[in-house]
C-alpha cells in the first residue's frame, strides 16, 4: 500500500495533477456549485466547461512551447504576437484590405484561415532558422517577432479592429450549430492528440530529447540536430496560429492590440507547471497540458470568487509560487531528507 | 435644426471644392452635437463667418494635433478642421504630430515665430509646457488647449474637453430616471470596468459609484474587462454563473466590453436590452455601439465627445470680441438611448453645477454620422 503510494507520487505527472486538483478543490469549499455542469440554452454550461473552453488557447500554445523548450533549452516568446498576426492576417483576407466590418466574406473562409496559418508557420520557420542555423539565443531570436508580429498585424488591418460578422466564422471560438460542446475544446483535443500520436509513433520525441540533452552528441550519432530544432519552432508557430484563429473567432474580429497579449508567459508557465525543466532535454507533453488548464483554472477561480481586479495578479502569483516551489527538486530533496531522518530516528527509538 | 444651420452655412459660402467637403464634415459635427453650447457656437460661427468673409481678413490659427491613432482622434481632427475653416473666417494651419511630443513643441514654437493669432494644442504629454507657453504669452498669442490637459503650467488661455466623471454621473442619473419610469425598485448592478488606472476608468467609476452610494443600489460585483471584447466576454461568462438570476443592470465602461457581455449573455440565454430582463449601459458610443443601441441591445450609450471644433471656434470668437472666456469648458456630450421614454436627465456635474441634458434617441442617420 505504502509502496504503491510512493510509486504514484514518484510519477512526473503526480504533482501537476495534484496542483490542478487542489486549485479546483479550493472552489468546492467556497462554492459547491462550481462543479455543476448543466445544459442551458442548448449548450453545456458550467465553470468546468469554462476552464476547458478558455484553456484551449494556452493548451495549444503549451504543446508547441514544450517542444521548443525541450529541443533548445530556450523559450519562444513570440507566440502571443504571432496569435495576433494570424488573427489580423485571417480577418484582413476575409474582409478585404481596409474594410473594418463585413457581413460577407471577400474570399472563402478556408482561404483566409489558411493564409493566417501560413503567416504563423512562416513566423515559426523564421524563429527556427534564427535559432537552429544562426545559433542565436532563442529568447533574442523570438524577441524580434515578439515586438514585430503584432505591429505587422496592425498594418495588415489598417490600424483598426476588423470585424467579420459572418456567422460560420464564429464557430471556431464558440459553438457549432447543434453541438453542445464549445468548439475550442475539440480543436485543442485534436492538436494534443495529433501531437501525442506523432511523438509516439515516430522517433521525433526521442530525437528532440537527445538534441535537447546534447546537441553535438546527437549530431555525431547521425541526427540532423539543426533540422529537428527548426521543425520544433515551426510547429510552435503553427500552434500559435491555431490558437490565434480561436481567439479571433471568439470575438469575430482581429483586435491586434489585445489578442494573445501576455499569452507567451502563460505558455511558458504551463510548461514549467507541468514539471518540465526549462533547461531542455526530457519533456512530458501531458504535464504541460495539465499546467495549461491549471493556469486557466486559477483565472476562472479568481473570477468566480470575485477577487478584486487589483488584487487578482497578487493572488495568482502566490498560487503559482506555491506550485513551483512544491515541484522544485531542491524542495523535494529537503522533504525526502527530513522523512529519511525521521524514519531513522524512529528506528533508533524502536531499537 | 442644427444640421440645417450648419449645412446651410457650409453650402452658402462653399463655392470651391474644399467648401463642399467642409460642408460634409460639418454635417457630421452637427448631427452629433445637438446641445445648447454647440448651437451658440454654430450661430456665432455663421455671423462671424459672414463678417470675416466680408472684411476679407482671416484669423490665423495653428493647430498641433496629437496624431491619428484612432477613429476618435480622426473625428476630433475633422471637427476642428471643419469649424476653423476659411468659410468661418479662419486660416487654419494643421500639424499632425504623430504622437511625438518633441515634434509638437517644435510645431508650437514654429507657430509662435510665424506670429499666428491663436494656437490650438491637443497636448501629447501633460507636462513640460511651461517654457513654450511663456514664449507664447510673451508673443501675446492666446493658447487654447483641447481634449488632454496641461498639468504643469496655467499659462494657456482656455481648455475644452471631456470630463469622464460627468459621463459616469450621467449614466447614474439616466439609470435612476429610467428605473423610476419603468417602475423598477431594486437595482442589482454588475460592473465591467476599463483598464485599471486609466483616466476613463477612474472618472466613469467615480461618477457612477456616486449614484450607487447615494441611492443605495446594490453593486454585486465589479471586475475589469481591460476595455476589450474578450475581457468583457470572459468577465460576463463568470458573472452569469455567479449571479444567475440576481442582476438586472450591467454597466460596461466601453462598447467593446459591451459587445463581449452581449455574446456571453446570449450564450447563457439571459435577455437584455430594451425588451430584456437586464438593463445594459455602455460608454464610448462608437458607430458599432450605436448600431446595438438602435437594435435595442444596449439601453443607453454615453459618448466621450470627440468634436471639439465648435466649442473651439466659440472661444476664438469670444476672444476676438474681447470677451472673457472661462478657463475650462466641458463639452456637451451626447447621451444616446434606445427608447423614447425620457426627454432629458438632470444631475449635478463634477464642477458642482446642476445641468439638464437632452437624451438622443438613436436612428440610422446618427449612426452614419458617428465616428
The name CATH uses for the topology of the largest domain in chain B is: Rossmann fold
Query: What portion of the residues of chain A fall into strands of 2 or more residues?
Result: under 5%
Biggest interchain interface, per-side counts: A-B, 30 and 28 residues
State the distance separating the first and last CA atoms of chain A: 25 Å
Query: What radius of gyration of chain A results from the CA coordinates?
Result: 22 Å
Taken from the alpha-carbon principal axes, the silhouette of chain B is elongated
| Uncertain residue segments of chain A | none
What structural class results from the helix and strand content of chain B?
Answer: alpha/beta
Count of helical regions of chain A: 15
How many independent structural domains of chain B? 2
Which homologous superfamily in CATH is the superfamily of the largest domain in chain B?
Answer: Response regulator
Architecture of the largest domain in chain B in CATH?
Answer: 3-Layer(aba) Sandwich
First and last CA, distance of chain B: 21 Å
Which labels suit this protein?
heterodimer; A: 351 residues; mainly alpha; ABC transporter involved in vitamin B12 uptake, BtuC; 2 domains; three-stranded mixed β-sheet; two-stranded antiparallel sheet; 15 helices; 5 strands; B: 371 residues; alpha/beta; Rossmann fold; eight-stranded mixed β-sheet; six-stranded parallel β-sheet; 14 strands; elongated
Short description:
The complex is a heterodimer of chains A (351) and B (371). Chain A has 351 residues and is mainly α. Helices cover 69% and strands 4% of the residues of chain A.
How would you characterize this protein structure?
The complex is a heterodimer of chains A (351) and B (371). Chain A has 351 residues and is mainly alpha-helical. Chain A has two domains: 15-306, ABC transporter involved in vitamin B12 uptake, BtuC, CATH 1.10.3470; 308-351. Chain A has helices at residues 2-10, 14-30, 47-54, 56-72, 79-95, 109-133, 138-156, 183-201, 204-213, 215-220, 225-250, 263-273, 285-304, 312-327, 329-350; strands at residues 38-40, 43-45, 101-102, 162-164, 253-254. A three-stranded mixed sheet of chain A has the order 3-4-5. In chain A, strands 1-2 form a two-stranded antiparallel ribbon. In chain A, helix 3 packs across helix 13, helix 4 (56-72) runs antiparallel to helix 11 (225-250) and helix 5 crosses helix 11 (225-250). Chain B is of the alpha/beta class. Chain B folds into two domains: 2-162 and 308-332, 3-Layer(aba) Sandwich (Rossmann fold); 164-303, Response regulator (Rossmann fold, 3-Layer(aba) Sandwich), CATH 3.40.50.
Amino acid at each position: 500500500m505504502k509502496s504503491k503510494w510512493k510509486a504514484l507520487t514518484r510519477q512526473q505527472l503526480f504533482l501537476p495533477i495534484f496542483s490542478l486538483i487542489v486549485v479546483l478543490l479550493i472552489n468546492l469549499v467556497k462554492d459547491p456549485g462550481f462543479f455543476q455542469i448543466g445544459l442551458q440554452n442548448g449548450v453545456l454550461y458550467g465553470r468546468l466547461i469554462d476552464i476547458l473552453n478558455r484553456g484551449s488557447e494556452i493548451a495549444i500554445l503549451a504543446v508547441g512551447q514544450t517542444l521548443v523548450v525541450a529541443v533548445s533549452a530556450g523559450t519562444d516568446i513570440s507566440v502571443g504576437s504571432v496569435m495576433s498576426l494570424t488573427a489580423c492576417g485571417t480577418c484582413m483576407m476575409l474582409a478585404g484590405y481596409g474594410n473594418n466590418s463585413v457581413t460577407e466574406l471577400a474570399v472563402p473562409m478556408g482561404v483566409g484561415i489558411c493564409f493566417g496559418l501560413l503567416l504563423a508557420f512562416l513566423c515559426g520557420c523564421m524563429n527556427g532558422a534564427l535559432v537552429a542555423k544562426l545559433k542565436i539565443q532563442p529568447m533574442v531570436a523570438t524577441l524580434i517577432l515578439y515586438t514585430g508580429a503584432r505591429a505587422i498585424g496592425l498594418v495588415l488591418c489598417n490600424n483598426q479592429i476588423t470585424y467579420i460578422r459572418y456567422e460560420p466564422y464564429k464557430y471556431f471560438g464558440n459553438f457549432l450549430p447543434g453541438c453542445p460542446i464549445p468548439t475550442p475544446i475539440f480543436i485543442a483535443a485534436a492538436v494534443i492528440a495529433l501531437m501525442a500520436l506523432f511523438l509516439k509513433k515516430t522517433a521525433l520525441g526521442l530525437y528532440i530529447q537527445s538534441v535537447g540533452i546534447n546537441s553535438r552528441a546527437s549530431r555525431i550519432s547521425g541526427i540532423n540536430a539543426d533540422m529537428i530544432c527548426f521543425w520544433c519552432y515551426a510547429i510552435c508557430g503553427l500552434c500559435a496560429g491555431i490558437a490565434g484563429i480561436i481567439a479571433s473567432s471568439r470575438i469575430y474580429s482581429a483586435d491586434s492590440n489585445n489578442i494573445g497579449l501576455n499569452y507567451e508567459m502563460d505558455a511558458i508557465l504551463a510548461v514549467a507547471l507541468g514539471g518540465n525543466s526549462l533547461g531542455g532535454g526530457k519533456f512530458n507533453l501531458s504535464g504541460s497540458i495539465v499546467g495549461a488548464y491549471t493556469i486557466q483554472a486559477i483565472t476562472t477561480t479568481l473570477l468566480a470568487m470575485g477577487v478584486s481586479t487589483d488584487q487578482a495578479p497578487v493572488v495568482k502569483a502566490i498560487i503559482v509560487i506555491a506550485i513551483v516551489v512544491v515541484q522544485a527538486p531542491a524542495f523535494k530533496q529537503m522533504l525526502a531528507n527530513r522523512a529519511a531522518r525521521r524514519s531513522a530516528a524512529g528506528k533508533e527509538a524502536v531499537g | 435644426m442644427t444640421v440645417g444651420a450648419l449645412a446651410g452655412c457650409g453650402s452658402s459660402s462653399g463655392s470651391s471644392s474644399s467648401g463642399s467637403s467642409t460642408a460634409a464634415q460639418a454635417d457630421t459635427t452637427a448631427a452629433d452635437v445637438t446641445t445648447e453650447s454647440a448651437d451658440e457656437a454654430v450661430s456665432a460661427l455663421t455671423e462671424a463667418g459672414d463678417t470675416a468673409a466680408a472684411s476679407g481678413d482671416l484669423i490665423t490659427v495653428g493647430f498641433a494635433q496629437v496624431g491619428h491613432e484612432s477613429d476618435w482622434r480622426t473625428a476630433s481632427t475633422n471637427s476642428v478642421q471643419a469649424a476653423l475653416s476659411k468659410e468661418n473666417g479662419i486660416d487654419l494651419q494643421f500639424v499632425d504630430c504623430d504622437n511625438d511630443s518633441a515634434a509638437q513643441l517644435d510645431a508650437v514654437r514654429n507657430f509662435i515665430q510665424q506670429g499666428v493669432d491663436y494656437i490650438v494644442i491637443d497636448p501629447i504629454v501633460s507636462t513640460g509646457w511651461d517654457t513654450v507657453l511663456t514664449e507664447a504669452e510673451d508673443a501675446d498669442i492666446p493658447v487654447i488647449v483641447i481634449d488632454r490637459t496641461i498639468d504643469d503650467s496655467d499659462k494657456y488661455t482656455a481648455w475644452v474637453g471631456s470630463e469622464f466623471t460627468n459621463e459616469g454621473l450621467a449614466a447614474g442619473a439616466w439609470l435612476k430616471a429610467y428605473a423610476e419610469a419603468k417602475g423598477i425598485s431594486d437595482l442589482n448592478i454588475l460592473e465591467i470596468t476599463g483598464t485599471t488606472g486609466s483616466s476613463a476608468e477612474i472618472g466613469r467609476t467615480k461618477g457612477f459609484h456616486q449614484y450607487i452610494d447615494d441611492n443605495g443600489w446594490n453593486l454585486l460585483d465589479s471586475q475589469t474587462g481591460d476595455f476589450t471584447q474578450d475581457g468583457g466576454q470572459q468577465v460576463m461568462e463568470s458573472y452569469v454563473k455567479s449571479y444567475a438570476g440576481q442582476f438586472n443592470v450591467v454597466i460596461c465602461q466601453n462598447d467593446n466590453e459591451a459587445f463581449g457581455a452581449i455574446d456571453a449573455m446570449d450564450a447563457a440565454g439571459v435577455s437584455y436590452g430594451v425588451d430584456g430582463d437586464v438593463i445594459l449601459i455602455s460608454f464610448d458610443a462608437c458607430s458599432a455601439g450605436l448600431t446595438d443601441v438602435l437594435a435595442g441591445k444596449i439601453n443607453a450609450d454615453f459618448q466621450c465627445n470627440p468634436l471639439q471644433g465648435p466649442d473651439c471656434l466659440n472661444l476664438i470668437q469670444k476672444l476676438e470680441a474681447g470677451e472673457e472666456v472661462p478657463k475650462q469648458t466641458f463639452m456637451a456630450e451626447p447621451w444616446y438611448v434606445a427608447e423614447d421614454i425620457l426627454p432629458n436627465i438632470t444631475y449635478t456635474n463634477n464642477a458642482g453645477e446642476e445641468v439638464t441634458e437632452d437624451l438622443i434617441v438613436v436612428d440610422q442617420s446618427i449612426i452614419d454620422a458617428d465616428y
